[in-house]
Amino acid sequence: MRPVHLVPAGVVLLALGTIAGVAQFTAPAAPGQGHPALAPQQVAVTSAARACPPIPGGGSGTVAFLAGSPAASPSGPGQAELAPLPLAGAAVRALSPIRAAGPGALSMLAAPAAQSAGQQAATVLSGWSVTASGTMAQAMEAEEATSAGLASVRCGAPGSDIWFVGPGQQGGAAHVQLDLMNVDALPASVDVGIVTDAGAVQAGGDTGITVPPHQTVIESLTSVAAGASVAAIEVRTSIGRVAADVSESSPHGGTASWLPSAAMPSTQLVIPGVPPSGSTAGLYIVVPGSANARVGVLAITAQGRYRPFGSQTVDLPADSASYVPLTPLGGTAALELTANVPVTAAVLVPGSGLGAFTAATAPISEQAVVAGNTTGSGLSATVVLSAPAGPARVRLTEVAATAGAASSQVVTVPAGHTLTVPATLPRGARHGSAFAIVITPLAGSGPLYAARVETQGQNTVASIIPALSALTTITLPSVRDSYDAISP
Questions:
Q1: Of 3, 304, 311, 397, which sees the most CB atoms within 10 A?
Q2: Over residues 256-266, mean pLDDT
Q3: Among the ranges 37-46, 261-270, 457-466, 470-479, which has the highest mean pLDDT value?
Q4: Any domain includes 194
Q5: Which domain-ending residue is among 333, 357, 381?
Q6: Is the distance from CB of 333 to CB of 299 less than 8 angstroms?
């Protein structure tokens, strides 16, 4: 055994005192004296990662991917690859790299079914990581899509605190499944919190879940949500980070519906892309704190603003999740929620299966991308743009997988209104092929919220994808002399 050398406590204190003294003498006395603070800097995004959940039922799938711009950076275009994230403990056969096309081009990546290692290969459930570097990391978006190119769920960015809100078993969700994916080289430890209409649920088996590096863990939350009409799910990591997805299926079977992640709890929220439907849509709100909430709901429509509940607020108990039926909103709309305490929320629009969900999002910064869109065979795509404050001028660009096939237009959204714009396949693209939509607020625009809505026929909502920012640059904050600069 190697000897252990102990350092006397006095030596440690002396060393710390010396460091503190040096810091005191070298730190600037005031801004502008000595060494001024470095100004915030805009730097290009050079690496990005997303994770796509396992294909329901296993088997192969398709990932719609778009990133970067056709003009490569001086350091080169970089690359983007798709790789399996098998279930924890499963060994899979190595795959040749699945690479996306160059920057600015839509790629429909075929993800084969993962096969277990060994002489008798069998299909293994697997999530998928999408990693990109260089220019290919800028404005990156990836979505799991059907073979026709229709996005069903966004491939999520890894995080440490992620929220979902939707129905529980009593609200029509016969099965609730949580997928946790780790794209990093270190393990992650995850705690899952559940809040229902009856209050917080103690889920002892859903704390301290270990998600190994480059693997997937699937948790069933069906029993936890068994007696609940509403279930809000918080995924929080104490070590590392994960990407997470929640799927719910109805008692009658059929295709599972995906819950989009909702914005962090806040006193002001906007839920974009709420289309009309043949039956009543539902608003799901979670109040995660210890104080009761008073929530005002404002609909932002093509005709302007109006309050679907009149002058009344929606009063909700603390530490609970609630369902509020929505009266018809007079067309496609966004919902603006204002509360006295932080809340987060989502909307379920009836459709096939449970229906389609949209959730509270942040306003679009730089641009947003929805990669998986299609038209034909009764499907039509629209972009729903809402400007709750000042007017917004927006460039909409459709990009097809066909080389050089793209179209663009600029539209104006009046302040306090919602504008619905049909999305069409660019000229020169093959009929029925997939295409991506890039949503870019132009200089001087007010806050913009958006979603892509796909409908089948006249009234059936097939898919809603709330639009999230796809950044090309990030801001590095200003730095001054500080111990924080050397903290791990």
A1: 397
A2: 96
A3: 261-270
A4: no
A5: 357
A6: yes
Q: Which of 304-308, 339-343, 383-387 has the lowest mean pLDDT?
A: 304-308
- Rounded Cα–Cα distance for residues 35 and 113 (Å): 57
Q: Match 């609200």 to its residue by tokens.
A: 171
Is residue 396 assigned to a domain? no
| Token digits of residue 401 | 């997988």
Q: What's the chain's length in residues?
A: 488
Please answer whether residues 473 and 44 qualify as being in contact, where contact means their C-beta atoms are separated by less than 8 angstroms: yes
DSSP 377: T
Of 45, 52, 459, nearest in space to 258 by CA: 52
Four-residue CA torsion sign, 305, 308, 313, 317: negative
Contact 326, 282 (CB under 8 A): yes
Residue 22 has pLDDT above 50, yes or no: no
Q: What is the pLDDT of residues 184-235, one digit of tens each?
A: 999 999 999 999 999 998 665 678 899 999 999 999 999 988 889 999 999 9
Please report the pLDDT score of residue 18 as a whole number.
42
Per-residue confidence (pLDDT) for residue 277, from 0 to 100: 85
The two three-digit tokens of residue 221, written as one number: 């939350």
At 191, the amino acid letter reads: D
Q: For tokens 């069409």, what's the residue?
A: 424
Q: What percentage of the chain exceeds 90 in pLDDT?
A: 64
Rounded to a whole number, what is the largest CA-CA distance in the chain? 78
Specify the amino acid at residue 246.
V
Q: In this structure, is residue 97 part of a structural domain?
A: yes
Q: CA–CA separation, 415 vs 38, rounded Å?
A: 37
State how many domains the chain has: 2
The tokens describing 2, both together, are 């190697």
- CATH code of 353's domain: 2.60.290.11
Q: Is the dihedral of CA 473, 102, 86, 124 positive or negative?
A: positive
> Could you please report the per-residue DSSP string of 25-74?
HHS-SSTTSSSPPBPPEEEE--EEEEEEPPPTTSS-EEEEEE-S-SS--T
Determine phi and psi for 484, rounding to 5 degrees. -60, -25
Query: Is residue 463 predicted with pLDDT exceeding 60?
Result: yes
**What span, in angstroms and rounded, lies between the C-alpha atoms of 322 and 367?**
33
What's at 412, amino acid-wise? T
The SS3 assignment for 380 reads strand
Residue 19 DSSP SS3: helix
The tokens of 214 are what? 């480059």
Q: Decide which of 154, 172, 193 is a domain's last residue.
A: 154
Residues 127, 131, 136, 140, CA torsion sign: positive
Note whether residue 107 is domain-resident: yes
Structural domain of 329: 267-357
Give the residue among 126, 71, 64 at the shortest CA–CA distance from 373.
64
Quote the pTM value: 0.88
Q: Give the confidence band of 43 by pLDDT, cuts at 50, 70, 90.
A: confident
How does residue 1 score in pLDDT terms, banded at 50, 70 and 90? Answer: very low
